[in-house]
Amino acid sequence: MEQKVAPYLRGGVAGQQVVLEGNRLVLTCLAGGSWPLQYRWTLNNSNITDWTQQYRLSVSSLKRTDAGLYQCTMRNRMGAVIHRRTEVQVAYLGSFSTEEQRKTVTQGRAAVISTPPLASFPRPLVTWFKDGQKIIPNNRM
Known about the structure:
Blueprint: E1 8-9, E2 16-20, E3 25-28, E4 31-32, E5 38-43, E6 46-47, E7 56-59, E8 68-76, E9 79-82, E10 86-93, E11 120-121, E12 129-130, E13 133-134
Parallel strand pairs: 2-10
Antiparallel strand pairs: 1-4, 3-7, 5-6, 5-8, 8-9, 8-10, 10-11, 12-13
């Protein structure tokens, strides 16, 4: 008589993933135990799949709204196990507004030029240019 084994986790999983918006996300829920094993995925504690025999979750083109805490629950006739959570962050870079900024200052006075608003994650690195040449920061700039 074959011994029945409750589901158990196999291998580790990344606690955090950063994926570029529009790219594919694949999460894997590795488990052992007596077959058939079934899997269900949640996002921020809400079910996003029904029970299935598919141990992978695939999102073909990630959107910003797909960011959050993903978790897999696996089960068989002997019990259920909740998989470790994976936080998925979606990296994106919006577009600059096309509005031109003009400043008039008296010679010798400071001119403050602000970066235009830009929706992005993570925070972007900004490089300034003057007349097509990169500005190297110094004590004046």
